[in-house]
Each structure stands twice: as C-alpha cells, then as structure tokens.
Specification:
This protein is of the alpha+beta class. It has 2 helices and 8 strands, in the order ββββββββαα. The longest helix is centred in the C-terminal third of the chain and has 32 residues.
C-alpha cells in the first residue's frame, strides 16, 4: 500500500493532478495548479476556459472562472468553490471515499452523489438515480455507502455553514 505523502514543499502554481476514479472503474484526470498541500488537505485551482454549463452543471459558469477544489483525507466529501474574480458563483460538493494525498496528486473514489449550492443558498442534488442504480448493482462497498451517507447528512444539514470555514481558509492561505 502506498502511504500518503508528507506536506508538499512544492510552490503554489505547481502542476498537480486530480485523479477521480468513477464507480465503473474508469479514471478521469484533471491537471490543476497547486494552491496548498498538507498531509490532510490539498487545495487546487482549475481555470474553466470555456465557461457555460461546464461538466454538465446546472449553473452557468462564465468563461475564465476558477474552480478551487478542496480535498480532505478525513472527510467524505470534496468542495469546489467556483469564482468569477471576487464573486462566488456556486459551490459543488461531491461524495467521495479513499482520498489519497501524494506528491503531485490527489486521488479519490467518486461516489456519484453531487450537490450544488447556488449563490442564492439553494441546494441542488444531482445524480441520485445514478447512485441508486450503482448501489443496486453492487458498485459500492459497505464503507463507500457509509461515506456517501455521511456526506449526504453533512451537506443536507450544513452546506451553508461550511462556507465561512472555506472563506477563513482562503484568507489564511492567501487563496482566491
């Protein structure tokens, strides 16, 4: 088993890979820029050059907007904080498991459930049908299902309360 890396000494802006393993076993890789890395948290940024409904989003993303991805080793979700300059466009939360932080990479298993929190504080759930199908097909382990349930509880009850935590982190880390 590969161990997670100690905190990175790579400078901000270093290319970093986000590696997402889908429930069907396929992988998606996104080349991002490192904003912060420690043994328990990685923050990366990704410029969405095309804008529009990026990745099939229910939110219109202006071209050139930046997505800041937050990946915690010990949390059952990730957060993408979408910005257009100083303006927060929206947040996306993904249920995940097995977050691994290594030098130059953050990897995780996607658990198919996603939520958007709009600038108007409206929570939009995505992919419930896909999650239920995958669960019925046995695509998830008991640990994956427990992580998805934890993520769902946290996001349903406290998504808006996570935003001040993210804002404080950004100020402390000089992000955004």
């Amino acid at each position: 088993m590969t161990r997670d890396a100690p905190p990175s000494t790579a400078p901000r802006g270093t290319p970093w890979v986000e590696r997402k393993r889908k429930p069907d076993g396929s992988e998606r890789r996104y080349t991002c820029a490192l904003e912060h890395a420690s043994a328990s948290l990685v923050v990366v940024s990704y410029v969405m050059r095309q804008g529009g409904a990026v990745f099939g989003t229910p939110i219109d993303i202006p071209p050139g907007s930046v997505s800041y991805g937050y990946f915690w080793r010990a949390r059952p979700y990730t957060v993408y904080r979408m910005r257009d300059g100083d303006r927060i466009i929206a947040h996306r939360f993904d249920a995940v498991a097995g977050v691994r932080i290594r030098e130059g990479e953050v990897a995780y298993r996607d658990l198919a459930l996603d939520w958007w929190l709009t600038a108007e504080n409206v929570l939009i759930e995505e992919d419930r049908d896909e999650f239920l199908e995958l669960r019925a097909d046995g695509a998830f382990s008991p640990a994956d299902l427990a992580a998805a349930a934890r993520a769902e509880r946290v996001i349903a009850r406290a998504a808006g309360r996570l935003l001040p935590e993210l804002a404080a982190m950004e100020r402390r880390l000089g992000i955004g």
